[in-house]
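Hello K.,

You asked for the raw outputs rather than the summary table, so here they are, unedited. I folded two proteins back to back in the same session to keep the settings identical. This is the first:
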Amino acid sequence: MNLRELEYLAAIDEFKHFRKAAEKCFVSQPTLSGQLKKLESEIGVQLVERTTRHVFLTPIGQEIVKKARTILADVASIEELVKTYADPMSGTVNIGLIPTIAPYLLPLIVQPINKTYPQLEIILHEVQTEVMLKKLSEGTLDAGILAVPLEIRGLEQIILYTEPFYVAVNKKHHFAKKSKIKKDELRGETLLLLGEGHCLRGQVLDVCSYAMTKERKDFQGTSLETIRHMVSTGIGITLIPQTAIVFKNLNHIAPIKYIPFSKPAPARSVGLLFRKSSNRKTCFKNMARLIQKIIQKEFSIKESMEIIPVK
């Protein structure tokens, strides 16, 4: 048994497809398949079940791949430790961002980070919260930027910023004349939401459940931008975090008005998560300070806020 064979097994578990797994491992499909058969022969158990249509791991294969991922993450950690011993702000880091943060935060932070830390190579991944947490625990992601707080064993978090939610309505909506809005005024409104799997969906439902707002069941957005365009048609309202308003050119969606909540405004906190065992803590703390500085420069929030929990 060697590390390469464990990489092949992990790739099969990820893609459930020999060709895609082979492409990730930069080998031919026959090579990957042959090495896995060799591994099965060596340890005396079947790891991969092959049919004409599907490929998946056997129960013992699933147990072994969990340990294989831990081993591979430890090896990568050793390699990265050697690279970063002299300079913690060098080398490659894989960072995940959730879809309701990535399009609005990345244009602000990527260039400053590259300029400040030119020896640091950042690989960005846009994933939903559940997938991100899994990849963080497996070691395939080094850090993640997402809505917090999240009490996850083995993970450390740094709060980057806290932002209030705004009510987004068509300018012909009866709310459009308001300068502030109370949560109970949302009663009876039709709410447009992201699909299942987006943590922002749960946070918005928490805000609006008090007012018994009704969700439009025949529509679930795949992104905030899709929902924003639907709001512009007047079929419903939604809640938008401040970064998605301030850091986006909205001239092309003129029919929308964004109304702040009365105090305390419902809000979400955004944080940087990484493993407590990571050898890149210095790197992540430096990155967090830089991001905090950028956000504070772009906008300041003075009103009192009520942090909506992440579920």
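The second followed immediately with the same parameters:
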Amino acid sequence: MSCIVGLFFCSKVLAQPDTKDKVYKGLVLDEVMVKEVKKGFDVQSFIDKIKKDTTFYKAFKSLRLLSYNMYNDIQIEDKKGNVKASLNSITRQERKNNCRTMLVKSEQVKGDFYTKKHDYNYYTAKLYAHLFFTKGTICNENNIVGHKVYSGSQKYEEQLRILIFNPGQRIRGIPGIGDNVAIFEAPTVEKYAFKLSKRDYNGEPCYLFTAVPKKGQEKNVVINELTTWFRLSDYAIVARNYSLSFRTLFYDFDVVMKVKLKKVSTYLVPYEVNYSGNWHAVTKPREIVKFVAIFTDFE
């Protein structure tokens, strides 16, 4: 694309800015950020940091290195919005001698959340457990974000991991999705409007970066919204909201996630995750699930 030469976005207007907003390198800046740029704020450097960011995924991996209590509320709904199965529990992860274990302190289960063999009856519940629960004793983990080559079931888990933890990055091997989630690359970048503002989040000064589809492109994209608050002091992500949806003859999904993060010791970790998802594949029954995960009492 000829208009992307040394720039991250095309230099044309991507969104109709407010009266005092300005467009800089295709990025809409609010009045405060316009002043920041005049003072020397490097927009291109900031955009590059967003493209290469791994801190969000690293924050989830860092949970493996700490002890904490966790409140789990998972609700499986039918098409009318009635709860047909649920899990409400409090768990405790203990990290000692470079190993972690998990204790279930309390648990309330309704409906067919579990099978008769006490396996998870729903794929979303399996994914939740894979992300947040510990079975047995697991040792010698780290929070390093690498670039491994995966195959088989691990490959699909890695693709899902990228979709959840690195929204905006290209995913290879998923027809219809892989290129469409690469919102920072051509040609998908042309479908989005981007804005950078300066906003407080929970009393902390932050850069607020938002990506939404341009008018008329809503049905042609996978990422419906990507909103991230970056702390001014160190560019750490303190919150991220994102919405994903897509529909084909073989599968469809509509997912919204909201994640809040904070610093614990030297680690950036999530302390609240809200999820609402509706998805279906030809080989699976439709799942409509909401869950809340809250992490407390870190050690």
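The longest strand covers residues 267-281.

Happy to rerun anything if the numbers look odd on your end.

Regards,
P.
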